[in-house]
Amino acid sequence: TTVTTTRDTQVFDLIAKEQHRQESGIELIASENFVSPAVMEAAGSVLTNKYAEGLPGKRYYGGCEVVDQIEQIAIDRAKELFGATWVNVQPHSGAQANTAVFLACLQPGDTILGFDLSHGGHLTHGSPVNISGKYFRPTFYGVEKETGVINYDVVEETAKREKPKMIICGASAYSRDWDYARLRAIADEVGALLLADVSHPAGLIAKGLLNDPLAHSHIVTTTTHKTLRGTRGGMIMMRNDFENPFGIKTLKGELRTMSSLLDSGVFPGTQGGPLEHIIAAKAVAFGEALSDDFYDYAVQVKANAQAMANAFLSRGYEIISGGTDNHLMLIDLRSKGLTGKLAENTLIKADITINKNMVPFDDKSPMVTSGIRVGTAAMTTRGLKESDMEQIVVYIDKVLMNHDDEATLATVKEEINEWMKAFPLYKS
Ligand code: PLP
Questions:
Q1: DSSP for 254-299?
Q2: Closest C-alpha residue for ligand 1 atom 14
Q3: Which of 2, 55, 167, 265 could bridge 104 with an S-S bond, Cβ 3.0-4.6 Å?
Q4: Is 233 annotated as a binding residue?
């Protein structure tokens, strides 16, 4: 045969092992979720064989009649989900989506204003180790020390001082909602574009459970695999297309629209052929997200996060900003005399997966950190409810308070493995 049929046991045995790990433990990494079997099927389909540079109906390759229809379905469903009029579903990831926007809107050396990484922002919003911080001049706003919340007056002062070409909002570890209207007013005041990166709360935004970023932002980016519960990937959206403010013209001398610049920013600007199997999986996930069931899911994600935050607070844990509006929270472990690194390494011994995370004004390095970030998107998909969140916090507290007692860690792990059998994920 031309296609090898011998099973690669070396790799597939490891995939089976990873499935077992996912199914037997408690997954609290705020950026993760579990896709449906249908999303997985699309992601593992024959579409991986197809090249389709370009956009539906305007490709540089033949044989795109079918993938054109699939990509158009993904676009149309994304528009419906978020109330967008223009969407590009091709970015391979959230970082790719942001990079494409920067390429479309900025020149090397331009100033950008983003949310500080150490306060919960993302690497792609101006970190010196990312292209956004290397090719542009990054400036930052953060949260206030006393409240753990963004003070928009300070954002305005910073914007007036730094005169950015682009203001970026959105975060990886910020548990409060965003005032997009205020940020747009600030952007307009200083002549900046407003980019909202809603990678984390996208699923909650799609169901109207958080403020609407598209109502005020020039451009919105997102990943598709966090609360949105799709395959790993990225996407760029706008509610209102507009003429680019940079004077970039078409060959005919007409001003190019932002949508055309953003399309070019993705391909050929920063990517080659789109991953049509992943785009099909996005289409399936968006179809699921349009359902009423997904509304119930999103409501439960929020309710679970609130139950979890309350359970932590009642056991004397400190949550940055004092609580959560979305699916995640950032816990400062300094009052418990623990580091994020110790917490992460100990919890994993009991099959509880979280990530260590810097807290605002952290005095420890990013490899150690003073905090942990936890989120409820994945365990809500498994079917866990508010009372289960309480039980998870009981386990976390038990593990952290007995972090050097291997017998207790082993007992908790056994109990968790037994408990999780009641919440099956995938058929083996
Ligand atoms: N933007 C934000 C706010 C994120 O939290 C993330 C992922 O953690 C990204 C962008 C990057 O997404 P990806 O890992 O898909 O490149």
A1: PBPBHHHHHHHIIIIII-SS--HHHHHHHHHHHHHHTSHHHHHHHH
A2: 94
A3: 265
A4: no
Q: Which atom of ligand 1 is nearest to the CA of 121?
A: 3
- Measured CA to CA, the distance from residue 312 to residue 289 in angstroms comes to 30
What is the reported pTM? 0.97
**Is position 121 annotated in a ligand binding site?**
yes
Q: What is the pLDDT of residues 97-110, one digit of tens each?
A: 999 999 999 999 99
| Nearest by Cα to 320 from 122, 125, 171 | 171
Which helix (H) or strand (E) is 221 found in, with range?
Answer: strand 219-223
Q: Encode pLDDT of 125-151 as tens digits.
A: 999 999 999 999 999 999 999 999 999
Long-range CB pairs of 188-193 (<8 Å, 24+ gap) are: 189/156, 189/159, 189/160, 190/159, 190/160, 190/163, 190/164, 191/163, 192/113, 192/159, 192/163, 192/164, 192/165, 192/166, 192/167, 193/105, 193/165, 193/166, 193/167, 193/218, 193/219, 193/245
pLDDT of residue 129: 96
- Which amino acids are annotated catalytic? 51, 53, 197, 223, 226, 232
- Using the structure block, give the residue that is written with the tokens 């049929």: 5
* For the chain, counts of helices (H) and of strands (E): 15, 15
Q: What is the pLDDT of residue 427?
A: 77
Nearest CA to ligand 1 atom 5: 172
Q: Let me know: does 166 contact 193? Beta carbons within 8 Å.
A: yes
Q: Are 399 and 409 in contact (CB under 8 A)?
A: yes
